[in-house]
Amino acid sequence: MANKTTIVILAAGLGSRYGGNKQVDGIGPNNEVIMDYSIYDAIIAGFDKVVFIIKRSMYESFHKQVGERVSKKIEVAYAFQELDERIPEWYTVPSDRVKPFGTGHALLCAKDVVNSPFCVFNADDYYGNECFKTMHDFLANADNTDKDVKKYSMIGFELQNTVPENGTVTRGICKRNEKNQLVECIETYKLCRFEDGTIRDINFTEEGDIYPNDTPVSMNFWGLTPDFFDFLEDYFLNFLKSLTAEDIKKECILPGAIDECMKTNKCTVDVLPCNSEWFGVTNKEDRPIVEAKLKTLHDNNLYPNLTSEEFYK
User: Can you give the pLDDT at residue 231?
Assistant: First the structure.
């Protein structure tokens, strides 16, 4: 019997570079938000539940614009990431710290509402239906009866499908072993397209280091089980213990926790291939590009009106 499966959406970010709560900003042709597409693809793929991780101050508008109608189609739960959430009594949050403690902390805030294998991803990224189907099939069928070493996964996007035509981006370049399992995810900071069709990292030299177009990269789309929360909690507590007065903005990031889990031999991470094109909204300048891409998807009948009452009956 296949496992029940959940999607967990990281939507508590402040969107400071974009300038507002971009997670609830209608951007599709029918005022869809980007996560509407992920939710639709997840439902079609067979996921049973969605957990939204948001800020408490976002709840009213978020529930009205997204959660209320989505709950007619799939089970919905909420988790809240705040500065004081999941913080032990022995730790005092610095008075001048503004933002919470990163994506690792955000996921930990969902511990009490996630009770099945799940995939976790960013609210403001479009991933495509292929990766949801691939991830669902992995989570639904993975044998995780081994108590010592858990089987996790990540979607490995092809580099060429994640680098825009203009500008530079940071991507997690993935190294794999002969079993197609993740060995290391290396943050690579200035990847850009050249006129000859190559993709290069120009962080250190003007001519750049060339990466094959089909190099797998992480776009923060992970497949995990509820067992991971116990590891993540310990990881987060150790993170807090390590902070100094100078670490006012330091974050506990989810990829770092997964990397530590791998390196301590508590899990393996399968790299699942995906040919979908990724795109997302980081800066205000990205909005018209994403709007055009989403309109094309609708024009090609890949998506219905995702805000329609007819669809969510």
Answer: 97
